[in-house]
Amino acid sequence: MAGDDNVLVRVDNLVKYFPVKAGGFIRRTVGQVHAVDDVSLVIERGKTLGLVGETGSGKSTLARCVAGLIPVTSGKVFFEGRDITNLSRRAMRPLRREVQMIFQDPYSSLNPRRRVGAIIGDPFAIHNIATGAERKRKVQELMERVGLNPEHYNRFPAEFSGGQRQRIGVARALALRPKLIICDEPVSALDVSIQAQVLNLLADLQQEFGLSYLFIAHDLEVVRHVSDKVAVMYLGRVGESAPKEALYGTPRHPYTVALLSAAPAADPDAAAARQRVILTGDVPSPIDPPPGCRFHRRCPKAQPICATEEPQLVPEGVSATSEANEPVGGNNHLTACHFPVAVGENLAAAGTRELA
Amino acid sequence: MTLLEVKDLNVSFPTADGVVRAVRGVSFDVEAGRTLGIVGESGSGKTVLTQTLLGLTPGADVSGAALFEGTDLLQLTPEKMRHVRGARIAVIFQDPLTSLHPLYRVGWQIAEMIRAHDKSVSKKEAAERSVELLRRVGIPKPETRVHDYPHQFSGGMRQRAMIAMALSLEPKLIIADEPTTALDATVQAQILDLLQRLQQDFGTALIMITHDLGVVADIADDVMVMYAGRAAEKAPKRDVFYRPHHPYTKGLLESIPSSSAAGSRLRPIPGTQPSLINLPSGCKFHPRCGYAFDKCAAEEPVLHLVGETGYHTSACWLPSAAIGLSVEAEELREEVARGHHGDAVAAEFGGAASDEGSVA
Fold first, then answer.
1. N or C: which end of chain A has fewer CB within 10 A?
2. B106-147 pLDDT, tens per residue?
3. Strand ranges (DSSP E) for chain B?
4. Residue A349 in domain
């Protein structure tokens, strides 16, 4: 699979732990935050892999590992077949042209004291690509492409609205014509009408430049709209991954089912008719994740085996206790569950367990 | 029974840059036991509106009336308002971490709320009641959790604690200002479910302020859509979602990615919200509206009845037949926008629109 021309990024068994330090003078490591725990995925050329999950599920950490912004604990990241895991800063530099990021908060991801032209022009300066008048011309082209007025070259970020600021972030990410753009919650901070403008822009740019996206969001409808493949994360692991239609049409992991049923739809009749699976409790701490399946304490279908044996991510019909580990983002519908939800099964009726 | 009746409320803030006209001429009713959803984007005035009702906008110029159980909230002295706020009308804010005091135990904070309004309750009784309230809102092991500090609670639990506090004096009305925005989807579902159950048990009326149309679709009975400080459309929930009249409401609905249109292009509302200091003339939405015609830039429409239900009102110059998402309605809207149907507008609103008809 590494030699597959369609594969832009391949991640093998990626693990990222953050140490938890004790207070006091000698900062002993007293635990590990299991932010990402054994995740494998592929991102295809020109396609979008959507990553959904709640706060603390490890989506952003995974993205930062893929972008090479933080060192990984173990596992490998390949970009166009080349191992880029834990490269030195110098070795990483050419790669930074290929992989860019768009961040969630357009208020804190732009330096308030620098002019927009300088912010968007930074990639050119850092990589010694264009200077002077040529840089200005390139920046203004970019501004025009993302729907900003090029005459606003000398303005400060504070003079722009949230949606316009996010366009500045998009222009900056686009400057070096990357192959992959990692979008970390790019529209969560925006109002709905503005959100739609930015989503359309991202779709247009993908078409025009053949970009691949790793698109992170907690809004399931947004992810459905932009993605080709979707992976659902829970507490550092991927619970389910499938092509979009399969994941939304016939979800098999109980967590995916609950997440889909919990997402508010702007349709009163659908909201009234829906069998909502109300999960009890909160996401457990990633410092001390539950043994076995990480979801078992909140799962309406949990059985004794779920508490002891960790289910593997396997295609339909394969037992989750077997040792298969296919990367997420392929064409298969993969689920990490001992008792996947059958088509038509009513999980809401399975009874939500009362709080202890 | 009408619990709260807001009449022609105006709120503006004098600032160094000019007068910010946050709320302009908004009127609405809340019936006992029902839920009103107020939807709008950031800066639409939805939060200022409700905070003004509770006397939480010091320094603002306020006019209009807000009758709650017969008394005008806007005329109350700060001292009298203290007896209403919390006891009769409770508030749940968006961010439960900043609404709870970090240095006091959760149980103490709930008990304080009870004792602040009723000194006859002993400390012991108040403590017992806070345990009971935490149990009602689904906090596991409330006997021990009352002694926790807010940071020991998760986001969802903190919001449950805020709801417990809001319920502690059995208010007639709860104002929930984006109560689930900071929460994850599965926890949001828990909180909405809890609010609905408690509302039924206590017969409380609820004003739910949100930017999320999904939350409104789930929980509201009636919906008011706000734009630039004004009510654009006000109707029973199903009318707003299935038969919107105001182009802004329609635009909001079309901006949301939905399963039915997955993969296709979204139809965002062009442009951005106007500055509240420097509002456009006429209808405040006309610079972004795809159906705007001359009258829209000249005169500001007010809420008037559209549709057949008798409860559906919209502040838009389009004829009331241009309602809903059907092809015919769309054609009518476009015809009016091109100036062909000026007579239809004239017939409904009198004289002023007839000119446009002849122009085209």
1. C
2. 999 999 999 999 889 999 999 999 999 999 898 888 999 999
3. 2-15, 18-31, 35-39, 61-68, 71-72, 89-92, 173-177, 205-210, 222-227, 230-236, 304-305, 313-314
4. no
Name residues whose C-beta falls within 8 Å of residue B153's C-beta, 6 or more positions apart in sequence.
B106, B145, B161
Residue B8 to chain A, least CA–CA distance (Å): 27
Portion 182-241 of A in contact with B at CB < 8 A: 191-197, 199-200, 203, 218, 220-222, 224-225
**Cβ contacts (< 8 Å) between A55 and chain B: which residues?**
155, 184
- Give chain B's domains with CATH numbers: 2-224 (3.40.50.300), 280-359 (no CATH)
> Shortest CA distance to A102 belongs to which of A197, A217, A16, A235?
A217
How distant, in Å, are the alpha carbons of A46, A166, A300, B208 from that of A202? 12, 11, 38, 32
Place of tokens 């933080």: A70
Count structural domains, chain A. 1
Q: Are A221 and B257 within 8 A, CB to CB? A: yes
Helix (H, G, I), strand (E, B) or coil at A160: coil
Q: CB–CB of B48/B235 below 8 Å?
A: no
Confidence check on the interface: ipTM exceeds 0.85, yes or no:
no
Distance from CA of A137 to the nearest CA of B (A): 25
Would you say residue A346 lies in a domain?
no
Residue B24 CA to its chain's centroid (Å): 15
* B272 touches A: beta carbon within 8 Å: yes
Domain of residue A13 covers 7-23+30-249
Q: Which tokens in the block code for residue A32?
A: 């590990």
Q: Does A269 touch chain B (CB under 8 A)?
A: yes
- What's the gap in Å between the CA of A175 and the closest CA on chain B? 24
**Tens-place pLDDT, residues B180-238:** 887 888 888 888 989 998 898 889 999 999 988 989 999 999 999 999 999 999 999 99
**Residue A268, in any domain of the structure:** no
In order, the DSSP letters of B64-95 are EEEEETTEEGGG--HHHHHHHBTTTEEEE-S-
- Kindly state whether A342 is in contact with chain B, defined as any CB-CB distance less than 8 angstroms: no
User: Which amino acid, A67?
Assistant: A
Query: Contact at 8 Å (CB) between B194 and B109?
Result: no
- A284 close to A277: Cβ distance less than 8 angstroms: no
Look up residue B183 and give its two tokens: 């929460």
- Which residue bears the tokens 């990984």? A72
Q: What is the CATH number of the domain that holds A122?
A: 3.40.50.300
30-69 in chain B: CB under 8 A from chain A: 41-42
Can you tell me which residue has the tokens 């085996």? A305
Interface check A352 vs B, CB under 8 A: no
Task: From chain B, pick out residues whose CB is under 8 angstroms from the CB of A218.
Answer: 184-185
How many whole angstroms separate alpha carbon B160 and alpha carbon A342? Answer: 33
CA nearest to B185, candidates A279, A159, A24: A279
> Is residue B103 within 8 angstroms of chain A, CB to CB?
no
Residue A118 located in a structural domain: yes
